[in-house]
Design goal:
Blueprint lengths: L2 E7 L3 E8 L2 E9 L2 H4 L9 H14 L9 E5 L11 E3 L2 H9 L9 H9 L7 E4 L28 H13 L8 E7 L3 E7 L2 E6 L16 H10 L4 H10 L2 H6 L4 H9 L3 H22 L8 E6 L5 H11 L5 E5 L3 H14 L4 E2 L11 H6 L6
Helix pairs in contact: 2-4, 9-10, 10-11
Length: 374
């Protein structure tokens, strides 16, 4: 039996699970109260608190991290890597996440917590299927501003697992299919998976709004909004990625509450919610063009995919492109564990992480000159 500890930090919770092979022994979503978060304004400030929560969870379930064969963490805000799959958590990755991250997000804590839990044991700690895999067609990176290269960022962990699961359900292989997969969560991202390779994508800042994100906004409006705002650079980034979208329109990011309002006859809530589904459908249509409409299946996954109302609106607009399959939920813990199991069984290898943040050439430089996001 192979013992696998998985850790997945989100904005307000830490998901943790322990597996024997693919059999789950224990799981929890450990909430970080807003009152605690208010005392820890920077993501890294939360490390000790969340690590303590994970230790308590393990102890309460009679488990010990040091008995794991591997620790698999959700990938944090590292910089672009050339391959999907597993990367070893090494000193360069740790320094990058602490001093020069690509963005501010609690996911960065996942591998730091895992590393702390097994420090000195030699147990491997890896990340799996990061959001920043650069496998896309080069043409997709070109923008109208030559100095701005649109580098790929997209949810990969859960959508790729959904692709594998769908393919298995029809007796095919993920690498044999053309799939447009939409991940519908706190952020919404979509990608075209061409026979196992993501070739183009729409991230949560380039497509529809989501429960927390603004999505794509015309530059003429966004420029005026930014320059007339009193927010700092970092405050603006955090607003657009955490307090916009449904939350800004309706004062809540809880879509169950939104659906309750719709049931009660709130036409404004329905229009805003429908606009989000409309944006998802537009994104799927946009992606379908990159392979001339040759799409075997459209997959809708993530937490919002539990809503039959929402997925129904999307389906109505896109099923002329290809059949639509809904695979609701975020099965990220299972996807992390499955990746770890493939590593332990030797069917996949672990990549070395050797990508320095832009402008840095050594770990010492990263530590001595933290970026403004650190």
């Amino acid at each position: 039996m192979s013992r696998i500890l998985t850790i997945n930090c989100g904005s307000t919770s830490t998901k943790v699970a322990f597996f024997d092979d693919d059999r789950e022994l224990a799981r929890a979503s450990l909430d970080v109260p807003l009152t605690e978060l208010a005392t820890m304004p920077k993501v890294l400030d939360q490390t000790d608190y969340r690590t303590g929560q994970v230790r308590e969870f393990l102890g309460a379930n009679g488990l010990d991290a040091t008995t794991a064969d591997i620790v698999v963490a959700r990938a944090g805000t590292i910089h672009h890597v050339p391959h999907d799959g597993a990367y070893a958590v090494n000193e360069l990755m740790v320094a990058t996440l602490r001093y020069a991250p690509a963005a501010q997000h609690a996911s960065a804590l996942s591998c730091l917590i895992g590393r702390d839990l097994v420090a000195g044991t030699g147990i491997p700690v890896i990340i799996y299927d990061p959001t920043c895999v650069d496998s896309v067609d080069e043409i997709a990176k070109i923008t109208g501003v030559p100095e701005i290269v649109n580098m790929p960022v997209y949810h990969l962990l859960n959508p790729k697992a959904a692709g594998h699961n769908f393919a298995a359900s029809i007796g095919r292989d993920y690498a044999d299919l053309n799939l447009v997969i939409a991940h519908l969560g706190g952020g919404i991202s979509m990608a075209f998976h061409d026979h196992g390779r993501v070739v183009d994508w729409i991230f949560d800042d380039g497509g529809p709004m989501s429960p927390q994100r603004a999505g794509a906004i015309p530059t003429r409006y966004l420029t005026d909004f930014i320059y007339t705002s009193e927010m700092s650079h970092q405050q603006m980034r955090m607003f657009l990625a955490g307090k916009a979208g449904i939350a800004a329109h309706l004062g809540t990011q809880d879509l169950r509450e939104v659906e309750g309002r719709i049931e009660a006859g709130d036409e404004h809530a329905e229009m805003v919610y429908r606009a989000m589904a409309y944006g998802v459908a537009k994104g799927i249509g946009q992606l379908a063009t990159v392979r001339a409409g040759k799409v075997d299946q459209i997959l809708l996954t993530g937490g919002i995919a539990h809503s039959e109302r929402f997925t129904g609106w999307v389906r109505e607009l896109v099923e002329w492109i290809a059949p639509v399959t809904v695979l609701p939920g975020e099965h990220e813990m299972e996807a992390l564990a499955a990746g770890g199991l493939r590593i332990l069984r030797g069917s996949e290898t672990v990549h070395d992480y050797d990508v320095y943040p832009p402008g840095y050439n050594s770990i010492d430089e990263i530590v001595a000159n933290p970026s403004f996001l650190a």
